[in-house]
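Lab channel / #folding
Pinned by the channel admin:
"Please post every new chain as: sequence first, then the structure tokens as a reply. Keep commentary short and put observations after the output so the thread stays searchable."

First post following the new format, from NK:
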Amino acid sequence: MKRPPIFITGTDTGVGKTVLTTLLAGFLRQRGHRVAVCKPVCSGGRTDARLLAAALGGEFSLDEINPWHFRAPIAPVLAARREGQRVTLPAIVAHARQLQKRGDVLLVEGAGGLLSPLGENMDSRDLLVALRAVPIIVGLNRLGVVNHLRLTLAALPSAARARAMVVLMTPEMPDRSTPTNAVLLAEHFDAASVVGLPWLGQPVDFKGALRTAHIRKILGRIVSL
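Reply from TO:
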């Protein structure tokens, strides 16, 4: 029996979703898994999708990983409308299910935060629920992230929230809250389901990170391996 899809969402845009998804794809492949990755919708460029394609070693084409892409750097649903296109939940689910057949682990990365509109009358939460996926919520570990994470967790259906993992991404310039956010969040959410990743540089050396035992241990916790 295949494991359920893993859905990587975040508290906002630019918090490290693609970095984490790329690391998880490489880590799972190292462990011998056949990994499929889908970033169904993006706008304003395909840099993120190209990183994911590289992590899979060319096994999946860019269009398979990212079937809907639009030029304007605005919310995907608005960018799609500018180009006379409509993205719908059934279409994304059908595409993701096809990719899932080609691997034993499917990673799905949303765009923006959990409630950011992806397509017509749908957001990442709708897609996550439709795929019955396990949520991973990424937040930048700085002042304000506890509020953002609690709001995101509260927006999840109870069954999904019970399976969720939270990943705190260390920023290049930590602030005074960075060492304390996980402790504070644990007062409201299972501490065992909160992990932190250190700052990995810019650009990220993904191959180097995956050679680091500490990083591999964290990634193993995230996907329960």
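NK: The two ends are 16 Å apart (CA to CA).
TO: also worth noting, The beta strands are 6-10, 35-38, 41-43, 68-70, 105-109, 117-119, 122-123, 134-140, 165-169, 194-197.
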